[in-house]
Amino acid sequence: MGMSSRERVLTALRCGEPDRVPYCEIGIDRVISHKLMGWPEPVKETSVEPKPYSAEEHKMIAAALKMDNICYELWPPVYAHKVASGDGRLFYADGMIKSEADLSLLQLPDPHDETLYTDAREFVRQAEDYAACFVTRIGILSAMMSMGLEGFCLALYDNRPLVEMVLDAYCNWTAVVVEHACQLGFDIFISTDDLAYNTGPYFSPKIFREMVFPRFRRVAERITLPWIMHTDGNVTLLLGDILDLGVSGLHPIEKGAMDIRAVKRDIGDRVCLLGNVDLNILGQGTPEDVEREVCELIRDIGPGGGYIVTSGNSLTDYVKPENAVALADAVQTYGEYPLDGR
How far apart are CA 316 and CA 30, in angstroms? Predict the structure, then answer.
């Protein structure tokens, strides 16, 4: 008898070898999920943040794609203006926090209020054998968006105390939220703060070490679950610091920014790798292309365990439904341990 999805994912996060390479996703756009499931077209978005799925919705999608996890999302608000793209989707634009006078805008939900966790508690209750993941941001990305990227970077040099006050507000909020989440019965904690461009970290490792990672460490002290850190971009210069925080998994080791095979070689015995099926192939390729990509990733990254297949970021709205299915099927076809080079 094989492992449950929960056992499979937790074994991989311990850098172990489960019965099969797990397949997980941190994010699934509602457009692709509605196409996959044959649900009515989703209501036009009026918010930038993802619309969380109920446990029942997520389990239906997970069953259809043979996924091993389901995710509950609790996002802190971002204080930035929003703009619509040509297709009607909303994106964050200029941040609203420009000076100390704007700090009054930072009205985060009370993290001590038990009603904030009512939906999360119900989500866990319905998780069944799936690996139940609690997803939020620790704070650096929320702070950057609330101040605007340019404003944030200028303030690093002109007004560091303002940056630290905004960052503290978010990180202190997350520290309390994490403590509650870890007591609700979730299996995994996932943070989703991007730290880098494709070329390297947003700013120097020195600033990360002086300002960002000490605050991440305060949050990490409250995390009692396996921790998956999501960050896009090339974080090669920060890998040692990330590992020192105690993360169990790194996602998605973005293709085009990092070489997942090199990361496996260098630190694959210390952290579970999650990734990184090419989004270009998922969006523009054929099911055969997707199958080949998944097969090669499992062949190269899967041996010895400590590997979870995911898309190279999330199942975005431009992913072809047939390619999402091909990804899921390929994990079933090629992912069974012991891997034999099929």
Answer: 8
* Residue 189, helix vs strand vs coil: strand
pLDDT in tens, 259-292: 999 999 999 999 999 999 999 999 999 999 999 9
**By CB neighbour count within 10 A (0-12 exposed, 13-18 middle, 19+ buried), where does 245 fall?**
middle
Can you tell me the distance from the alpha carbon of 26 to that of 190, in angstroms, rounded to the nearest whole number? 8
Distance CA 260, CA 256 (A): 10
Name the pLDDT band for 342 (thresholds 50, 70, 90).
very low
Instruction: Give CB contacts under 8 A, 24+ apart, made by 109-114.
Output: 109/76, 109/77, 111/173, 111/176, 111/177, 111/180, 112/176
Residue-range domains of the chain with CATH:
5-334 (3.20.20.210)
What are the tokens at 103? 């700090």
pTM over 0.90: yes
The answer to whether 246 and 305 have CB atoms below 8 angstroms apart is no
Distance of CA 293 to the CA centre of its chain: 21
